[in-house]
Amino acid sequence: MNVRRHHISGVALAAVTALGLGTLTACSSDSAAAGSTDRFDVVASFYPMAFLAEQIGGDHVNVTSLTEPGQEPHDLEISARQTAQLQESDAALYLKGLQPSVDEAIGQSEVKTKIDAATLTSLEAHGAEVGGHAEDSAGEHADEHGHEGEEEHAHEDEHAGEEHAGEEHGHSHGTEGGKDPHIWLDPVKYAEVAEGVGKAFEKADPDHAADYKKNTAALVEKLDDLDTAFRTGLKDKKTDVFITTHAAFGYLAERYGLTEEAISGLDPESEPSGARVRELEKMAKADGVTTVFHETLVSDKTAKTLAGDAGLKTDVLDPLEGITDESRGDDYFQVMEANLKALQTALGAK
């Protein structure tokens, strides 16, 4: 569909297509690559963006994901073939600040329609409670920890810089300004992004605008139902506090009146301090925490160590950065429903 296709030679394009790239089969064949079909060709940065494109685009789009299934999105480095495929695409859908190499490649590309999900909803700072009190005594923090929504973020400004501790290693899990990028884990914010993506598709491919509008409305309705399921499913519970390996669930916690306490910060691979681990052990006992959650794309070693020391169980709470054979479901909705069940069990919800 892209009119710029003639800028790449037939030999080069054949090579690019042969090399392939994590193509999502829901809207295209395994051999179809971005720019090589007669449909609206969309390159998505990673799974949550690709899922939106699939659901909204339906049969009219060919969706290609830059991040392979099972690959940690933040570790992605754009290759030459991926850059070439970006050039051949009709649209790029991404979340600026999450994957620096993607931001750079899209910024330098000639893609006509560039959709930054971070501009389609409001981003907030989360994760500062993680490690932000590492120098405090565990007892002092336990006394201050009231688990009210407003108190979760009381130290955000003071410790905002700590959220980017991983940047020196070429890996940052926050967007520009230290904002939490995990908007897709809040069904309400994800619906806001979906509406923005739908409007962008309508503008970029007006011949199919009516279908994009209809598909967007259907997706938003399903996300509204998911929001209702979380609200009702977590209404009556024994504790509001849950422990995760890293601070991916700040939006979800805030939406449903929970308190996320993460072993590490926004960077899933950062190591917690000894003080933080001791603090979490005391907090778990005081707040009736039963479970330490880990995820599918990052090692569960730290979670299991903490759980073993504190006499707690472990379970999966999936940040949905990719779908693999280890995922508890085949798509966004199935995995989110599994997350809800895991939270209900861990929090003692009726």
Give the gist of this structure.
By secondary structure, the chain is of the alpha/beta class. It has helices spanning 10-19, 47-57, 80-87, 100-108, 138-144, 187-204, 209-233, 250-255, 274-287, 301-310, 332-347; strands at 40-44, 61-65, 91-94, 113-116, 241-244, 259-262, 291-294, 313-316. Helix content is 38%, strand content 10%.
Describe what this molecule looks like in 3D.
The chain has 350 residues and is α/β, with parallel strands linked by helices. Helices cover 38% and strands 10% of the residues. It has eleven helices and eight strands. It has helices at 10-19, 47-57, 80-87, 100-108, 138-144, 187-204, 209-233, 250-255, 274-287, 301-310, 332-347; strands at residues 40-44, 61-65, 91-94, 113-116, 241-244, 259-262, 291-294, 313-316. The strands form two sheets. It has a four-stranded parallel beta sheet with strand order 2-1-3-4, with helices on both faces. A four-stranded parallel beta sheet has the order 6-5-7-8, sandwiched between helices. Helix 2 (47-57) crosses helix 6, helix 5 packs across helix 9 and helix 6 packs antiparallel against helix 7 (209-233). The radius of gyration is 21 Å and the shape is globular. Residues 3-34 and 128-172 have low confidence and may be disordered.
